[in-house]
Amino acid sequence: MWIPKEIDRLSTRLKEGRRIHRITVRDLLRMFKAERRGLNKVHDIRTALDSLSLVTEPDFESVWIDGKIRIRLKDTSNVVAAIPAGAEIDEDELDEDQASSPEEQEGVDSPQLGSAEEPQPAIVVASEGIVETVLREPADPTFRIGSLPAANKPVTTVGQDDALNKAVTKMLQFDYSQLPIMHGEREVKGMISWKSIASRYSIGGESCRVLHCREDAQVVDGNGTLFDAIPTIVKHGYVLVRDPQDRRITGIVTASDLSLQFQQLAEPFLLLREIELHIRQLLQDKVSPEDFEWLASADTTAPMPKSISDLSFGEYIRLLQRPQVWARLALNIDQASLTTQLEEVRQIRNDVMQFDPDPMTAKQLDVLKNAAKFMQQLYELLP
């Protein structure tokens, strides 16, 4: 079993009672020479961590790829508490959360969210200036709202005593429909939006300050499920996402962010569907019963396919490599180039069907787009 030297070094430091920086999930993947959390790579990382009695907090598979995680020893609930008296502490290795004092964590204006010990259904907790939706914190691998990129981007804010024209200017500059009204990173005072501004003007009176156009803010726990947050986003157009550990507002997720997310999730499936249907059409009426028997002879445990639709993607490629089938296709293109391209598609397809938590890379998406385009061109050239 291969263990990266960086992980081994972190394990040694922790066992010596020394502090370490938090890292991002992407940093962890790079240590294992990976870009995405594929099924096999996740298994390798977990095996390596287990062998060193390490865990990540939160779990590296459940958070945003650029979200920070803390590596700690399995038998300690808090790495800071495990430091023995007189142990060496490197100040440059302290992360910002470890260095902060309890007093710096004050100023939170809303109640704690449901914990793993007390699972709760989605409810709404009201307080001054904020409506906080307590989402279920699942133990299963469901998609969390905090895993979205938008939930981990700095938020543009205004203060409640700011002039109204400052909020309007920011909304126009960045094409925002709303801005959170905040004091610091944790204290939410409300929200200002074009709707709340228009509502104030419609009833008359002075509206020279942000406070005069304030409405309740919609806040959700970053560990909650995406599907629990969707109704709030649909109704209000956004949610503010709060870190369940340090109570900071980490980002804002809008309806347009949801649309982009679902596009990223759906596009690979649609491209794979198009490629596979083109292959079926290409092979239709070109494959004989003898070809099916030839495929079945390689795997005696699987039932013999009766039609093209019974085949796996790998079996499509094997048929295209079979000289008899290729001769029947009568395609004036290079056989090896086509099957090499489709083999790349097959490998990507395996990753997609394993439902990896990370979006595919731009390179992988280009492979699918190029293959779909090429298969369409082949279809147009067929007699």
Structure description:
- It is a single chain.
- The chain is α+β, with helices and mostly antiparallel strands.
- The chain has three domains: 5-90, no CATH class; 123-247, CBS-domain (Roll), CATH 3.10.580; 259-381, no CATH class.
- The chain has helices at residues 5-15, 25-31, 39-51, 96-99, 164-174, 194-202, 226-236, 255-283, 289-298, 313-321, 323-329, 335-353, 362-381, and strands spanning 23-24, 54-57, 68-73, 123-127, 130-134, 178-183, 187-193, 217-221, 238-242, 249-254.
- The strands form three sheets. It has a five-stranded mixed sheet with strand order 4-5-8-9-10.
- A hairpin with a 6-residue loop joins β9 (238-242) and β10.
- Mean pLDDT is 81; it is low at 77-126.
